[in-house]
């Protein structure tokens, strides 16, 4: 009975994530190969994934989160821990434009 509940719960979670992921410009899975830190709202914390894939349907191979974003410290902590541990992450991004350039803003992550 416990196995059935786990399978049903997993199925519902995957179903919900499928609906949720439709609102993103990109959902990319990989290992973080580098991160950059700069001023809090100047694309403050940036990551790149192994193989440098394009992250939200444009030419950029990095995604960012700003200090003013909700849960900023949690995102940064989780991403740095994933980098240190060599864990795989899935990064969901939205293309956000400044000065006509669409950069990939991190909105949701999964660490495996």
**CATH C-level category:** Mainly Beta
Tell me the helix content: 25-40%
* Biggest β-sheet strands, sense, barrel: 5 strands, mixed, barrel
Strand order of the largest sheet: 1-2-3-5-4
The fraction of residues assigned to DSSP E strands is 35-45%
CATH-derived topology: OB fold (Dihydrolipoamide Acetyltransferase, E2P)
Q: Which stretches are low in confidence, meaning pLDDT under 50 for 5 or more residues running?
A: none
List the total number of helices. 2
Total tally of structural domains: 1
Distance from first to last alpha carbon: 26 Å
Average pLDDT:
85
Pairing-aware structural class of the strands and helices? alpha+beta
- The gyration radius over C-alpha positions equals 15 Å
H/E element sequence: HEEEHEE
Task: State the shape.
Answer: globular
CATH architecture: Beta Barrel
Number of strands: 5
Features:
112 residues; alpha+beta; OB fold (Dihydrolipoamide Acetyltransferase, E2P); 2 helices; 5 strands; globular
Q: What report would you give on this structure?
A:
- It is a single chain.
- This protein has one domain: OB fold (Dihydrolipoamide Acetyltransferase, E2P) (Beta Barrel), CATH 2.40.50.50.
- It is built from 2 helices and 5 strands, in the order αβββαββ.
- A hairpin with a 2-residue loop joins β4 and β5.
- Strands 1-2-3-5-4 form a 5-stranded mixed beta barrel.
- The chain is globular, with a radius of gyration of 15 Å.
- 30% of the residues lie in helices and 38% in strands.
- It is an alpha+beta fold and 112 residues long.
